[in-house]
Design a protein that fits this description.
It comes from Thalassomonas viridans. The chain is globular. The protein folds into two domains: 60 residues; 212 residues, Arc Repressor Mutant, subunit A (Orthogonal Bundle), CATH 1.10.10.10. Helix 1 crosses helix 3, helix 1 crosses helix 12 and helix 9 crosses helix 11. The strands form two sheets. The protein has a four-stranded mixed β-sheet with strand order 4-3-2-5, sandwiched between helices. Strands 1-6 form a two-stranded parallel sheet. The longest helix has 21 residues. The protein is 49% helix and 14% strand. The protein starts with a helix and ends with a helix. By secondary structure, it is α/β, with parallel strands linked by helices.
Amino acid sequence: MNKPEYHRHYRVVEQAIHFIQRHFEQQPTLTEIAEAVYMSEHHLQRVFSEWAGISPKRFLQCITKQAAIDALKNTSNLIEASQSLGLSGTGRLHDLLVTCEGMTPGEIKEAGEGVAIEYGVVATPFGEAVLAWTGRGICYLQFIERQEQEVINDLYRQWPNASFALNNEAAGKLSQKVFASPLERGKIHLVLKGTNFQVKVWEALIKSQPSQQLSYSQLARLAGSPGASRAVGTALANNTIGYLIPCHRVIKSNGDLGNYRWGVERKSAILAWEHAQV
């Protein structure tokens, strides 16, 4: 598929997701969804399934508030089970798919001095993104909401003293590993740049499973700081490695999806895609 068509299909799916979210209480039919995005039912079914991994009807079932509330209840049971076994978190109950390490305060202070960063613009199942990495691992993955250059400039600001090299070919190959299903243990390494608390929150998220959805309070418990729900929200807002640090799995305790820095439609698509993989 060429790039313009790839981008156009993502936008159609984004519009379909937006329509489903606004009207899920009325349980719209495939015909109604297709009419809302000016596409035939057959074509929408195919394009939507390619992007989200499931049909529009199955997606509709996944995003109902009751489904989200049930997922939160299951997460609570998993947390309790892991604690009753004397484990530090749910990540100990299954193999890690992604490994990570936090930067030292000294490295953060140097702002990337002496670090060589390669980056590229890649097509993902959830729209275009800027992906960057060092010799130690992936350090940046941001979906492009508006202008490509804005996201690249943000990468430069995150690492003001680093040297940069554009490498779209290598970025494309790395992106295929990132969005492979399933991921292989230890195949992807992340370099985390944040405060000690932020790193703990991000590590707790990395250890969560695709089938989980977490409330802010549940994530605070997993990070070892019960009651720090507001600080958890700040940590999520400072996440610069989207998808791999899965802040899309964090929803409100009442089942509402809540905010997402790259758009609630994209958040819904990722959650449904993960659900389909499981």
